[in-house]
C-alpha cells in the first residue's frame, strides 16, 4: 500500500510544502484553470477547496537524474 497523495478538507498535511487543487479527472481536457495553491507546514489542516469535487495534492519538483 502506497502513501496517500491526495487530501480533503480537514485532513492534516503529512509534510511541509506547497499543495494545489486537483480535479476528479486527470485528463488534460479537464485541467483546472487557476487552481488555488497553499503553503503548508507538517500538521496544518487543509482548508476548503473551491469545488467539492477537488482535492489537495503536493506540488512536486521535477526530478533530475
TrEMBL record:
It holds the Pfam family YjzC. Residues 40-65 are annotated as: Disordered. InterPro entries: YjzC. This is YjzC family protein. It comes from Paenibacillus durus.
Amino acid at each position: 500500500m502506497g502513501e496517500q497523495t491526495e487530501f480533503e478538507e480537514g485532513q492534516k498535511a503529512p509534510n511541509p510544502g506547497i499543495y494545489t487543487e486537483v480535479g476528479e479527472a486527470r485528463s488534460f481536457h479537464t485541467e483546472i484553470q487557476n487552481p488555488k495553491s497553499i503553503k503548508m507546514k507538517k500538521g496544518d489542516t487543509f482548508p476548503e477547496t473551491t469545488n467539492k469535487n477537488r482535492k489537495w495534492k503536493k506540488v512536486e519538483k521535477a526530478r533530475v537524474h
